[in-house]
Write a structure and sequence with these properties.
A hairpin with a 2-residue loop joins strand 9 (151-159) and strand 10. The strands form two sheets. Strands 5-4-3-6-1-7-10-9 form an eight-stranded mixed β-sheet, with helices on both faces. Strands 2-8 form a two-stranded antiparallel ribbon. By secondary structure, it is an alpha/beta fold. The protein has four helices and ten strands, in the order ββαβαββαβαββββ. It has a single domain (23-164), classed as Dihydrofolate Reductase, subunit A. Helix content is 24%, strand content 33%.
Length: 172
Amino acid sequence: MRKVILYIAMSLDGYIAGPDDDLSFLNAFDHLDMVKSSYKDLLSHIDTILLGRKTYDWIVNHSPWPYQGLKTYVFSSKPYEIPYGIMTNEDPKKLVLGLKKQPGKALWLIGGGVLVQSLLDDHLIDEMVIAITPHLLGGGTKLFGNHQLEFDLTDVKHEENLILVTYQKKAV
């Protein structure tokens, strides 16, 4: 069965985006070898991406589409036609459970606070790779809500001021 990998960055105080969905706090780390190699490794293990509409909008408004060749599902309560992938208002649990049963590589959960919370609620995140930046944003979009789940730490790396931690869903 395919797995869902949350590969994301967050501030030291737990935000994946600052106020007004600002992601600029992440720009200072793209040059790090650890970031480049972990991203390259991730891309070799996935064939599908999952993201929320705000994350999708931010990406298409700030860069050329970086995920050519990957099946893309964008979740939105008010879907519309998009040039990169499929925007859907289907229940994330139902869609992800269906995708997990299909043959293929892993699914990358890029983000969207609401989408991450939904998949955590449904226990559908199998692995989390979280880059922790040395920023205190004080507000924005939190990565985690009020979940009581346990994961096993499987790897920790650091370079300069960035920490990269990997967790696997705890076996039940």
